[in-house]
Amino acid sequence: MKNNNCSKKLWYIKKNWQLYIFFLMPAVILTFIFKYIPMGGILIAFKDYNSLKGIWGSDWVGLKYFERFISSPDFFRYLINTLKLSLFGLLWGFPVPILLALILNRIRQEGIKRKIQLLIYLPNFISVIILCGMVKIFLSPVGPINSLFGTSTDFMSMPEAFRTIYIASGIWQGAGWGSILYTAALANSSQELIEAAIVDGANIFQQIWHVDLSAIKNVIVIQFILQAGNIMSIGFEKAYALQTDMNIPSSEILATYVYKIGLLSGDYGFSTAVGLFNSIINVVLLVFVNEIVSKLNEGQGI
Question: Which pTM was predicted?
Answer without folding.
Answer: 0.81
